[in-house]
Design goal:
By secondary structure, the protein is α/β, with parallel strands linked by helices. Helix content is 37%, strand content 25%. Helix 3 runs parallel beside helix 6 and helix 5 packs across helix 6.
Length: 255
């Protein structure tokens, strides 16, 4: 291991679900501070890989290292404390709570005080950090609205705000522009770029929109049927015939 110079290292990971092979001997390394995209067709294993890194799935074989530490057997909530945060393809929020309360709940969880929240005590101690995150994500005006009233794009922004207040070193974004309008997509791309450009954060994302991928990613890893087909910079990946065949061509309607 290269210690803190490496944000994530996955070594020989195998994961099966009910006998179906989701990840097949997957290995990859993501340097600290990189914006790295995982791409591939539906069913390639992208979300499963994120689940293994975040601790939602335990691999059947192989190891996962985060910032030089073996976290393979570490529970998901402990990985959050170790600096791993994830936003999902379908935003996981509390729809009946206000936007501000959603972020405040994440602040309290990050501080290890979630029992205080669930006993119904006031959230005022977390409101300052929540308001700062909402301002950063351009959601301040929606702070008092029920989260259920948000558009798909703003729900994704809310979940990212909730992830950021966890003070992560590694942010996993699963399909961050899924279901968004072109305007929301462009805004989200700028948001992700802005978050990453501040420094100190490694971002991994999965994404089907190739324009988003090539606009954002420094490096790409291509998965196909659960295994790593290739890794490289965007220009090199774009030029590969096998990538065009299994993914890029399909995405653009090629046979």
């Amino acid at each position: 291991m290269s210690g803190e110079a490496t944000a994530v290292e996955v070594r020989g990971v195998v994961k099966r679900f009910a006998g179906n092979l989701a990840l097949d001997d997957v290995s990859l390394t993501v340097p600290a501070g990189q914006l790295h995209a995982i791409i591939g067709p539906n069913g390639a294993g992208k979300s499963t890989l994120f689940g293994v890194i975040a601790g939602e799935h335990r691999p059947d074989r192989g190891t996962v290292w985060v910032a030089g530490r073996d976290v393979t057997r570490m529970a998901a909530h402990r990985r959050v404390r170790a600096g791993v945060a994830r936003a999902f393809q379908v935003a996981r929020i509390f729809p009946e709570m206000t936007v501000r309360q959603n972020v405040a709940a994440a602040v309290i969880a990050a501080n290890g005080s979630s029992r205080v929240f669930w006993r119904g005590k006031p959230l005022w101690t977390a409101s300052g950090a929540a308001d700062e995150a909402l301002e950063r994500l351009s959601l301040a005006a929606a702070g008092d609205r029920p989260a259920r009233s948000l558009s798909q794009g703003d729900r994704k922004r809310l979940e990212i705000a909730m992830a950021l207040v966890l003070r992560p070193k590694l942010l996993l974004l699963d399909e961050p522009t899924a279901g968004m309008s072109p305007e929301e997509t462009a805004s989200t791309v700028e948001l992700i770029r802005g978050i990453w450009s501040l420094g100190g954060l490694t971002v991994m994302l999965t994404e089907h929109d190739m324009q988003v991928v090539f606009d954002l990613a420094q490096q790409l890893t291509v998965l196909d049927r659960g295994h790593v087909l290739c890794s490289g910079d965007p220009a090199a990946i774009r030029a590969r015939d096998d990538v065009k065949e299994i993914y890029l061509g399909r995405a653009h309607g090629a046979a």
